[in-house]
Amino acid sequence: MTDDFNTNTPPALISLTKSYICGLQFLFAFTPGIAITYLYAFPPSDAQYMNFSLHHLAIGVSTLISSFVTWVTWLCYRSSGEIFLRWLAFGFLGFSIIYACHGLFTQLSNCNLGLFLIYGPVSRLVLALCLLLGLLNYNRPADSLQVTAQLKSWRTLFLLFIVLDLLIVLAFSRSGSFCLAEIGMTNSNEFASKLRRGLEWGVVATTLINIFSMLARRIRGPLMTLFMISLVVFAQASISFLLAKPWNHQWWLAHAIFASGFLLLSYGIMQAFLSSRSFARVYSVEELMAHLRDANLELVRLANTDPLTNIANRRSLMDSLAIAIDQYHRYACRFSVLILDLDHFKQINDTYGHAAGDWVLQETVSRSFAQLRSMDVLGRIGGEEFAVLLPHTGTEEAIHIAERLRATLAETPIIFDGQTIPVTMSIGVAEYSSDHGNGESLLRQADFCLYEAKRRGRNRVESDIDTSDSPTSSVALT
Ligand SMILES: Nc1nc2c(ncn2[C@@H]2O[C@H](COP(=O)(O)OP(=O)(O)OP(=O)(O)O)[C@@H](O)[C@H]2O)c(=O)[nH]1
Questions:
Q1: SS3 label, residue 341
Q2: pLDDT in tens, 269-324
Q3: Given CA atoms 214, 218, 221, 225 in this order, what sign does their dihedral have?
Q4: Which of 38, 21, 9, 471 is nearest to 249 (CA)?
Q5: What is the DSSP string of 196-224?
Q6: Which residues are near ligand 1 (CB < 6 Å)?
Q7: Which of 59, 104, 149, 403 is surrounded by the fewest CB atoms within 10 Å?
Q8: What would the DSSP string read from start to end of 141-183?
Q9: ipTM exceeding the 0.90 mark
């Protein structure tokens, strides 16, 4: 359906629509920048909104949401084994655990601002680094079911994130400790302030690396586009955090920007869960149509090909015959068919084994191909029986070609696994005339000639005309 729509739509309109979509994505991605710039250029006096309850509530809800998103991402990974999703889930896990501490220590902003603040950039940095690792593994083959079922790495990371939290508490309970009341709500602690800014710049740098790696590697796809927009939003959230002072408007805005990027990413995860459980390999409609076209072509190929010899099967050969008959009636193009049958093939199987028999069939095909023209059609129509359609060919020339095919096999034995296998074949030749009516009756006539070749001693070519000067005998059709 979609394909029909697209083929009937003017290309200019399709380009315009695509450009509009690109513009929208760009706008979505950079809208936070407008708010950041505005608040930076026109700060609403020195207003600060220090509301612990709201902060608790916001981080409580965020933790619940990010835990749910982590779980759904993990389910997607277990189902698809996609390594990109594994790192995404690790990132969400680390972020949820560490960010929860930011909420837990809200009260500390009164007496240990450093400890309270540090969890924000640490949680974002852990997420950004995991996303980077996910992108680095973007093209790697999926994990097997055995690997996805293992919980060891998840437990290890869970513990690692808890240890990271404890380390931060230990470090800041001494050096970062200072009282907000003493410093008049400004972050005067040099070490804590520098560390926080350093970590936040680390988030910006990692996120930019993620963005540029996606652009350089041309990573696209509907969900990866959402991912890219989230990255751009995350980078802007960090810039907003860098411009912010605790409890001022820029600081609240930074939280809101980060939350919007996270929610967008979680939307992508839910879409992945409800579709293929894969994030990186969700295709656009265009890509799906291209895949479908390729799959259909492959199906048609398989339906028309003999799997052992890779040549046309009976059905495909009959289609070619129908076309040749059509051309005979429209343009009087003569054509003939040969039916080739290996002699005593059962004995070959019995003496040398089935694998040797298969090899003989394949070798017969490649030797025959070498004797035929590109317009001739060689098909396998039975176990050890082949047919050749020879366009623009009358009986005399067809007998000549058949004789060449017979000789190419009879004169050089086939070697299989060090064993020499003498192989011959008998061939029946028939030229199409309007009396035949259809392909089946033409094949019947060639088959009749083949039967005569077998009856007269095999390793022969037989046709329905008299050619007494060739090794071929003629057969009078009844
Ligand atoms: N190796 C192998 N053998 C096959 C395949 N398809 C059919 N055959 C064998 O081909 C043999 C055909 O035997 P027959 O029909 O008795 O013919 P023949 O032994 O060639 O005897 P004539 O045709 O009378 O010379 C059977 O033994 C089949 O099992 C195949 O794909 N591979």
A1: strand
A2: 999 998 888 888 776 677 778 889 999 999 999 999 999 999 999 999 999 999 99
A3: positive
A4: 38
A5: HHHHHHHHHHHHHHHHHHHHHTT--SHHH
A6: 308, 341-346, 349, 354, 357-358, 361, 383-384, 454
A7: 149
A8: PPPPHHHHH--HHHHHHHHHHHHHHHHHHHHHHHTT-B-HHHH
A9: yes
- What's the Cα-to-Cα distance from 168 to each of 127, 192, 196, 242, rounded to whole Å? 17, 11, 12, 20
Q: Give me ligand 1 centre to Cα 319, in Å.
A: 25
For residue range 360-372, list pLDDT tens digits in order. Answer: 999 999 999 999 9
Name the region of 140 (left: φ>0; alpha: ψ -120 to 50; beta: rest). Answer: beta
The pairing of strands 377-380 and 414-416 is unpaired
Query: If you take atom 16 of ligand 1, which residue's CA is the nearest one?
Result: 346
Give the distance (Å) from ligand 1 centre to CA of residue 337: 21
Among candidate residues 384, 403, 452, 462, the one labeled active-site is: 384
Quote the CA–CA distance of 196 and 109 in Å, as a whole number.
14
Question: What's the token pair of residue 232?
Answer: 């751009």
384 catalytic? Reply is yes
Say which residue the tokens 């020499």 belong to.
420
Residue 445 CB burial class (10 angstroms; 0-12, 13-18, ≥19): buried
What's the 182 CA to ligand 1 centre distance in angstroms?
98
SS3 content of the chain, % helix, strand, coil (to 5): 65, 10, 25
Q: Which residues in 285-436 belong to E strands, given as ranges? A: 312-313, 335-342, 377-380, 385-391, 414-416, 419-421, 425-431
How many other CB atoms are there within 10 angstroms of residue 354's CB atom?
A: 10
